[in-house]
């Protein structure tokens, strides 16, 4: 079992944050065998599709290079132009095949997640002793065994292919040049394709091994998990202060909404719920402020300064406080009770009978299941 410097066993799976930090440092799962397999397979397919035309073009370029005019050879200016044109023709001829190989080399690492690029110099990589330790480590021995196995398997397949294709290879010298070149390209393509078969086996073993080894190296101790949680979520005192600030902000915003209320329902002193109702834009009255004890007292003071009608209805005040929510419409089961209160207050306002004193309403129809003592 892997251990850290403190002797604690790394038994916990790596967290997403640990994996992200590892990726930022260039630590990602890699399989060289998977990349080699992809390169061999791409080379085989490229030779099968592009090989005949590629070898034919190379032959044309070589023939042109060996049949130069004597005047061009003796003239430095013309020779420079000839060499430049030849270089351009060679690059243009090889570009499709080389481009395919470059794309595959860049995309193959993506099969295991991603590839990283970093110019950060790590001094521990220059330490000879650490380098020797890595060489003779468990991972180094596995890499050595894997390299030997790959050499034996791929070498064995290559020997078998040469032994079985000996007659065909010797017969190439008796064919016309054009057909011999096309035949050679097809033979190379199928040879590369056959060499990918043992690489399939090697990559099939190496990929799971590399993934398991990578995840094993990223394991964390229980203390590291706790430290990360503390760093991520913050210390308890900091979290408490954040919650207090959030509560203060919410209360301050709520108090700013009290002057917009149409009525204030109280208990008369322990509970206070401010309601706003705009028939043109609202389907039901909305609770813009609610509180108990000291908060209820503050709501009453603000409502009093802005001359908001106050209705003393203990049952309705408690029902709204315990069943309603801030900035939400009143519960459907309290529609009738609230409508009766609003209608009574609107009638008093229309008749000019609002005196600023509390309006006592004890017979409001509050459902039995919402009543609290």
TrEMBL record:
GO terms for biological process: bacterial-type flagellum assembly; protein secretion. GO terms for cellular component: plasma membrane. It is found in: Cell membrane. It is a multi-pass membrane protein. Keywords: Bacterial flagellum biogenesis, Bacterial flagellum protein export, Cell membrane, Cell projection, Cilium, Flagellum, Membrane, Protein transport, Transmembrane, Transmembrane helix, Transport. Residues 1-28 are annotated as: Disordered. It comes from the Bacteria. SUPFAM superfamilies: EscU C-terminal domain-like. Residues 7-21 have a biased composition (Basic and acidic residues). The chain crosses the membrane at residues 34-55, 90-112, 190-215. Belongs to the type III secretion exporter family. Required for formation of the rod structure in the basal body of the flagellar apparatus. Together with FliI and FliH, may constitute the export apparatus of flagellin. This is Flagellar biosynthetic protein FlhB. It comes from Candidatus Competibacter denitrificans Run_A_D11. The gene is flhB.
